[in-house]
Write a structure and sequence with these properties.
CATH architecture of the largest domain: Orthogonal Bundle
Number of domains: 3
Distance between the termini: 70 Å
Order of helices and strands: HHHHHHHHHEE
Radius of gyration: 21 Å
Structural class: mainly alpha
Strand content: under 5%
Strand order of the largest sheet: 1-2
CATH class of the largest domain: Mainly Alpha
Length: 201
């Protein structure tokens, strides 16, 4: 009997390190490592969360025999992007399924999200627009890090390149992240906005 088999193996640990420390068989590692694909965790791909959430909701709604969910509210998207997702895609799908069940056919809002995910929205400023929430949060983290983007990216739970892309996206939307400097007293002409954030245009 002949068989034509392709093996797809997935792991969330560094097999090369495990192999070097003797915790993973060297021969098995080289048998599996033919075409390795490195997929960053969801927390480093936050810009993909809105699209993934809509795709999951469409699938979940169809399975439940419901109409497809309309575009998610900006506050819900901000909460989803602000959460760390230690369980990656599986956790995101389960969280959306929970929200779909609790909403009973209504549009999903913040109250349908778990307390952990709602906490991400509260930390971002609640009623602000998505771009403003993101800009405000990044500004505060950069200010706390003295402008060090590597440290800021680590606190935000994203890669430095992802932070750079986020800053570029915000700049295209009209936001400008001002590097932290000496504190100045705000005069009558101050904008009243969060420190370090300016809306251009």
């Amino acid at each position: 009997m002949q068989a034509n088999v392709r093996v797809l193996a997935a792991t969330n640990v560094n097999l090369a390190e495990r192999m070097a420390s003797g915790q993973f068989r060297r021969d098995l590692y080289y048998r599996l490592s033919v075409v390795p694909l490195l997929i960053p965790p969801l927390r480093e791909r936050r810009e993909e969360i809105p699209g993934l959430a809509c795709a999951f909701l469409d699938d979940l709604s169809r399975r439940a025999g419901r109409c497809a969910q309309a575009d998610l509210d900006a506050s819900v998207v901000a909460a989803l992007q602000g959460y760390g997702w230690p369980g990656n895609l599986r956790e995101l799908r389960n969280a959306l399924e929970r929200s779909l069940v609790i909403s009973r056919g209504e549009a999903i809002t913040l109250r349908h999200l778990s307390p952990e995910i709602r906490g991400a929205a509260n930390a971002s400023g609640g009623s602000l627009r998505l771009g403003e929430m993101t800009a405000t949060h990044i500004c505060r983290v950069l200010e706390a890090c003295g402008g060090n983007r590597t440290q800021a990216a680590a606190i935000l739970g994203i890669g430095r390149s992802t932070l750079k892309r986020n800053l570029a996206d915000l700049a295209r939307e009209g936001f400008r992240i001002v590097p932290p400097g000496p504190r100045r007293q705000s005069g009558p002409s101050g904008s009243g906005g969060p420190p370090g954030q300016q809306r251009v245009g």
